[in-house]
Amino acid sequence: MFGQWRSVAKEAVDRALIMAEFCCFLHVIPNYLCSSTIVHGPSMLPTLNLTGDVVIAEHVSHRLGKISRGDLVLVCSPQNPRKIVTKRVVGMEGDTVSFFLDPNFGDRYRTAVVPKGHVWIQGDNVYASNDSRYFGPVPYGLIQGKVFFRVWPPDSFGPLGKD
Amino acid sequence: MGTKNILWNCSKKAFTFGLIGVTVSDRYGSVAAVRGASMSPTFNPSTSSLMDDYVFVDKYCLRDYRLSHGDVVVFSSLTNYKERHIKRIIGLPGDWIGIRHCSDVLRIPEGHCWVEGDNPASSMDSNTFGPVPLGLVAGRVTHIVWPPQRIGAVERKVPEERISSH
What we know:
The structure holds two protein chains of two kinds.
Chain A: H1 2-33, E1 34-40, E2 51-58, E3 72-76, E4 84-91, E5 96-100, E6 109-113, E7 118-122, H2 132-135, E8 138-139, E9 143-152, E10 158-159
Chain B: H1 2-27, E1 29-34, E2 53-58, E3 72-76, E4 84-91, E5 96-98, E6 105-107, E7 112-116, H2 126-129, E8 132-133, E9 137-146, E10 152-153, E11 163-164
Antiparallel strand pairs in B: 1-2, 2-9, 3-4, 3-9, 4-7, 5-6, 5-11, 7-8, 9-10
GO cellular component, one term (chain B): mitochondrial inner membrane peptidase complex
Active site (chain B): 38, 87
GO molecular function, one term (chain B): serine-type endopeptidase activity
């Protein structure tokens, strides 16, 4: 009689553990392995379309410190922590970056050195991108992942990488 | 054959609990050690004690970034993403803050916060490296869990004279 209850309890615990494990996979895989994102905005034209591109990002490289110049990264915006933006890493720590003050008009440019522990991110579309040229270099800790593949639209299906 | 089975079962259980542990510690809360004396007397009040304080870090507040003045937070270092610091939030976006040792006044930009250690004599904080982006905040310290004689909630404290909210 008691033995029956014991086996029912054991099965209940096993099933509960499987459910908990499934819920944990729902957290661990998008945060530690890879996830998909819909990107929108004009700041990464012509690499990414204006709206509706679905890209796959991996979350392993930035934890190992393997992000380098030219990578497309997902970054927590320094102006709004709830917003994640997609930009390209143009300078790593120690690099000297130059950028035009106004790309539409004139030749004046400014030079900056990227401090330790920071990266310089820019959108591929310099005419319509709010990036490090406005809010300065961003700490490496704000990088959330590296975009490496595009799955939608179907005619642009394929890897995304350094230019 | 029997030992292989037991080993496989044990590693499956270990994997499951590891996964659950990582999820809970990322989403709800975890325990962290406080090193250094920059938050004396709130944490590590005596340098002669052999053990560091351990605190409970709440992660649930990160969903909406519900942080207020006086919260003690854990954040990744600006110069080395692998290091974490524990300091108190003195200012939130839009506040005007008076920098210590300097008669300058600074407006905290959108999406950033101003952090300071409770021990002004030995604290590397926003007075040194400037405002910290809120995206680097990894949790809020709510309780001390070790040593047993100082178990209790961590209170909010704000130095009113150095900050002016908008």
